[in-house]
Amino acid sequence: QVQLVESGGGLVQAGGSLRLSCAASGRTFSRFPMGWFRQAPGKEREFVAAITWNGGSTYYIDSVKGRFTISRDNTGNTLYLQMNSLKPEDTAVYYCAAASSNWTWSGSAYYTRKYDYWGQGTQVTVSS
Can you give the pLDDT at residue 2? Predict the structure, then answer.
């Protein structure tokens, strides 16, 4: 059974940091891209960051560039999102996602339909 389990969310003041983790099990995710999405109340799920199977390429939404860093540990089948300088507008449920094939077009990273497996999400709340 494929499982993606997020952890590390919580309540933090603006300017603070959090590190999200996503533990993957049930298949070999190390050969495929993974990403983070988020969904705020009343809004659609949006792309945050993605990383190719070997970490050679990373992608970010403009609003988090320079503040968030995505990384992965393929030995441990774990995906990370280091979030610094957090803002109230970063408040959302954060979801880990994994693809089951490598993309031929880098733009695929930004679309939810390009991911086949999803975690249950972890809440991140940033107070002002």
Answer: 80
CA distances from 113 to 7, 61, 63, 109, 116 (A): 23, 17, 22, 9, 7
- Tell me the H-state helices in 69-113: none
Phi (first) and psi of residue 116, to 5 degrees: -110, -20
At residue 47, the 3 state secondary structure works out as strand
Taking CA atoms, 57 is separated from 34, 60, 103, 127, in Å, by: 11, 10, 12, 32
Nearest Cα neighbor of 96 from 128, 125, 124 is: 124
Share of the chain above pLDDT 70, in %: 100
55/26: higher pLDDT: 55
Residues 6+ apart with CB under 8 A from 30: 53, 72, 74, 75, 77
Q: Please give the sequence-ordered ranges of beta strands (E in DSSP) within the chain, or none if there are none.
A: 3-7, 10-13, 18-25, 34-39, 46-51, 58-60, 68-73, 78-83, 92-98, 117-118, 122-127
